[in-house]
């Protein structure tokens, strides 16, 4: 498939010249004459590269670039600012807006071609990374689908743990890691046979050993993705216990990554309040008694248990009803904390 390039310039002759040149080089090209049209084309056309004039009526190229980089569906699109401005402050503003490169007017054709090729190669690497993530997510969801009792578990866990992370004030990159880990935390169960995964009675010692390998296998599966750097500790350690009696490494207390502890509390709650092959679902009140008892026994981080319970009790309905309520509850609690400061 031909790479897609969006040319944005309010000067019709400049637009036409760039379109003609790029089409001759085999690219699929669209154009826009102003900032608002450019943003609409980014959403509809999904270009692999944007050549963006800086000085335009209405939204400037800086503002258009800033908006492209602010939205999840477009922020990975490389943006080249095309400008006749040469002042240092203009360059700094472009960098601050998120520009990936600059081209000076008048444009040198050879320089344009080289920069376009370079940035399109970068975009193709990014797309491959996203495809790899999509494959992992698909694998994780296929594992979830092996057990009808766990339907929706990954989606709930992604939202539950991110909601608790928000309440704790974790940075955005860790919230993103929690959402990803919610989906792929059990991907290592790909090595666990259905006879063990769906067994209604207690597992034998051998079966327990096999099941306890899934965090290590999951970490190994996800390790090649550098974008999963913050996800890997969550996958490996979400079955550790505060007192060191968990697995696979037997680490304890603060040595267990905070994000792994966050996901663990949400995971335990969801497991207790849904039917599983080996047990019936507990009512939320019963589930909290179990979790708090486990905290007293030293299995769970007491502070996180209470934080998560507080988040849950901020809603009239159980936490498992909708992710939107979780986010609204977390936002309300953050506002209250800011008001007290």
CATH architectural label of the largest domain: Orthogonal Bundle
What overall form do the CA principal axes indicate? elongated
Number of domains: 2
Low-confidence stretches: 315-341
Strand order of the largest sheet: 2-1-3-4-5
Number of helices in the DSSP assignment: 15
CATH superfamily of the largest domain: Hypothetical protein af1432
Oligomeric form: single chain
Tell me the CATH topology of the largest domain: Hypothetical protein af1432
> What is the end-to-end distance?
55 Å
CATH top level of the largest domain is Mainly Alpha
- The percentage helix is 55-70%
**Helix/strand class:** alpha/beta
Largest sheet report: 5 strands, parallel
- Order of helical and strand elements: EHEHEHEHEHHHHHHHHHHH
Mean pLDDT: 86
Into which percentage range does the β-strand content fall? 5-15%
Q: How big is the Rg?
A: 25 Å
The count of strands amounts to 5
Commentary on this structure:
There is one protein chain. The protein has 341 residues and is of the alpha/beta class. The protein has two domains: 4-127, Rossmann fold (3-Layer(aba) Sandwich), CATH 3.40.50; 146-340, Hypothetical protein af1432 (Orthogonal Bundle). The chain has helices spanning 12-24, 35-45, 61-70, 88-97, 109-145, 153-168, 172-184, 194-197, 205-211, 214-222, 232-237, 258-272, 284-296, 302-312, 323-340; strands at residues 4-8, 28-32, 49-53, 79-83, 101-104. It has a five-stranded parallel β-sheet with strand order 2-1-3-4-5, sandwiched between helices. β3, α3 and β4 (79-83) form a beta-alpha-beta unit. α2 runs parallel beside α3 and α12 (258-272) packs across α13. The longest helix has 37 residues, at 109-145. The chain is elongated. The model is unreliable at 315-341 (pLDDT under 50).
